[in-house]
User: Fold this.
Amino acid sequence: DAEITQSPRHKITETGRQVTLACHQTWNHNNMFWYRQDLGHGLRLIHYSYGVQDTNKGEVSDGYSVSRSNTEDLPLTLESAASSQTSVYFCASSEGEVGELFFGEGSRLTVL
Amino acid sequence: GQNIDQPTEMTATEGAIVQINCTYQTSGFNGLFWYQQHAGEAPTFLSYNVLDGLEEKGRFSSFLSRSKGYSYLLLKELQMKDSASYLCATTDSNYQLIWGAGTKLIIKP
Assistant:
C-alpha cells in the first residue's frame, strides 16, 4: 500500500542546531507540503512543492528550507533551531492542485 | 482577508447527532474540506464540498453555502470513536489550504 512516512517521530534539540525532518511518500504524488501544528492554531503551511526542483514558501517559511531532488522526498531543514519552532510538523502529499491531502504521522520537535 | 472560524470544543452524547459549524472568508474559494484528527495522530480526509448543498457519506454529512461563507459537518449515531478534533479548511488565492483551529468533539456515554 502507498504511504507517507516521516522521521524522526520525536526529536529534542538545542537552540542554534540544524535539524532535518525527513518525509518520504510512495503515492507518486507531485505535490508535497510541510505544515506545523500548534495549540490554538490551525495547520500552518511552511513550504510546498509541485514537483522535482520546485519549492515555494508558505505562510510561515522564515527559518525553514526544503529541497526536492526526486518525487518521493521533501526534507525540511531548520537552519538554526529556535524555541519558537517547537511544534508538531506534518508532511502531506496530494495528487491534484486542489485535492485530498494524505498526511504523514507527524514529527514532534522540541527545541530547548 | 482570509479567516476560518469554528467552535473550539463541543460535547455530545453517544448515539446522538452533532453539527459542527464553520464560517470562512477567502479571496480564492475552490472548495471546503473537513478532516478528522484523533489525538496524537495525523489528520484524515472526511469530505470536500465545492457546490452548495448537502453531501452525505454514511454517518457523516457536510453542507456548504458559498453565498454565506458557511459549512457544517453533521455526525449521526455518534460513537465513542468519533471523539476527535474536526478541522475545517478552504483554499486561498494561491490554491493553498487555510485551516481553522479545529473543533474538539467530546463524546460522553
Remarks:
- Chain B touches chain A through 22 residues (CB under 8 Å).
- The longest strand of chain B covers residues 18-25.
- The CA atoms of residues 9 and 104 of chain B lie 5 Å apart.
- The mean pLDDT of chain B is 95.
